[in-house]
Amino acid sequence: MIDAPYEDAELLPATRRALLHRLATGQSEGRAPSMAGAVTRDGHLVWSSARGELPGGARAEDVQYRIGSITKTFVAVLVMRLRDEGLLKLEDRLGAYLDTPAGGDATVAQLLSHTSGLAAEARGPWWERTDGALRPGLADLFGDHPQLHTPGRLHHYSNPGYALLGALVERIRGESWYDVLRREVLEPLGMDRTTLTPAAPHADGWAVHPWADVLLPEPAVDTGRMAPAGQLWSTTADLCRFAAFLMGGSYGTGRGGQVLSAATLAEMRTPEGGSRAPGQSGYGLGLQVMQKDGRTLVGHIGTMPGFVAALLVSPRDGIAGVVLANRTSCFEAVGVAADLLATVADLEPRIPAPWRPLSEVKDEHLELTGPWYWGAAPFTLRLCAGGALELAPSGSGGRGSRFRPEEDGTWTGLDEYYAGETLTAVRTAEGAVSHLDLGTFVFTREPYGAGDAVPGGVDAAGWRAAEGVRQQVSEGSDQR
Fold first, then answer.
1. What separation in angstroms does the CA of 106 have from each of 45, 71, 73, 337, 388?
2. How far apart are CA 62 and CA 236, in angstroms?
3. Within 35-130, where are the H helices?
4. For residue 301, what is the enclosing H or E element?
5. Which DSSP symbol is given to 60?
6. CA dihedral defined by 207, 231, 303, 221, rounded to 10 degrees?
7. Dist. CA 29–CA 158, nearest whole Å
8. Would you state the pLDDT for residue 474?
9. Residue 438 in this model has a pLDDT that exceeds 60
10. What does the pLDDT look like over 129-181, one tens digit per residue?
């Protein structure tokens, strides 16, 4: 029983009631005609429900809602697949692939992270409520001032930017972005209920009067060229499959092979634009990143006339919360999704996987483990699976990071300050480890270890007690 699969365990009755209470409160206080919610844990749908009016006979997890800008994350996955196949580079200018009147000077990465400087909205009438036939070509997407900021200077959310990324996918693949999405992402992940246009059973979009409990139907138009910014329809069950995939798992039916590697998904979750300060939001490559109650949540929020959607993932907990509602400006949906996730994480915390020894280890890696010192600051280096390393401060402060092994015998940093930096084990002529070089920072086995490894050298007299310090100060005073 020690190795019993945790993912097969059902939620406790108290947890399920707490989830239902939160969803019911969100639907009631948000005055949503309907609200559907679901939670996935370790790749398995563990809870779903809905409140309000649903199509007759439909299961809550099978009802389609429009998911708005969550569509952008799907488009980002397509672009990252092109990058991983070597068909483009993130630092490439868009103009190298597309003839566009605006956005051509921005890089692919800048478009993905909303740092391209493009305007937030398309030109002409409110694009979310008007037919895409009004904007048949890329030139029709932009008004008189399409470029508001210098590319790369700041984070400025841009819907036309993702329309351009959809066109980029079409240019390289030679077919519509949605056909590519269906073949390369939706089918492999088993997302059969995620479509470009609604398929029954689906919810209708509504606006709710601010001062009276009455409804107004919202249009659900085909937005054409702007579709990659917010066109898709989906269900809570499908979005839970997508959420599990975003956490780096190989969940789903397995049709069509791997969609993206875990390393690429981790790259997408790393903030590129927006604030990186604790408690504030950032934006990765097609994913929003936020801090809430001590957790890092990634995912996306989506709105279209008549609909609000939220997909939030906690990779640390292996849990995701999804909420869909059919009301314009139902701001409660985001908080409900975060609370559904937190309810399961707090009431039924993750049971760690059984500890097991490494399947293989190299002696030259093992000898690197243990205490190291950057100057006099203590650190610990641990060996992980696959020859990866983890550096952590032993004291109250300092920068840590994980490192992946490279074929040339070095390691590349994966986190924060050391992301992308190279860690090298420097050896003597005899092959013994002299020190570690981390982006020019030197780590030695002893605090300010003797020898020539530390730049600027180490005082030959070494460490001294208080008497030696007083004597040095006295001699210095005599010399003056």
1. 39, 21, 19, 33, 34
2. 7
3. 70-84, 108-112
4. strand 295-304
5. G
6. -20
7. 31
8. 62
9. yes
10. 999 998 999 999 998 899 999 999 999 999 999 999 999 999 999 999 999 99
